[in-house]
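re: ur question from the group chat, yeah i did fold both. here u go
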Amino acid sequence: MIYSGRVRNNVIVLEDGVVLPEGTPVKIEVHEPAPAPAPPGSTLLDRLGDLVGCLELPEDLAHNHDHYAHGAPKK
């Protein structure tokens, strides 16, 4: 059986009124909370700004995109 619960005052409290007999062996699997959504009004640059400039790209990438992406001859 799988039961859900939360830790309250360092004690695991099962949800839905589940009561297990005293001494029942259990295994605990901790589920990490989902990351908080971006605050309203934040831009893509706000969220990913630390990635700006981390790649070294060819200077003619825009002009020769097909060459770098698909192997076509350079223009």
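okk and heres the other one u asked abt
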Amino acid sequence: MKVVELREMSAEDLHRKVGELHEERFNLRFQQTLGQLTSPIRLRQLRRDTARVHTVLRERGASASTSKIEGDKA
């Protein structure tokens, strides 16, 4: 998943995406435990995708708080 695609999504969509990624990662870890995992690389991809989504959410939070601070100064 590309960061550009994530930045185009709304905050609600991003939160939903995090939930989907966590659920898929849980299922893959379960498969790994049972020895049925076909693509171990997918676990790494999911972990990184989750981090990307969290980063975009934090960027938005930081920019929102920065704009509030700058607005208070004016």
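fwiw on the second one: The first helix runs from residue 3 to 8. The CA atoms of residues 21 and 46 lie 6 Å apart. idk if thats what u expected
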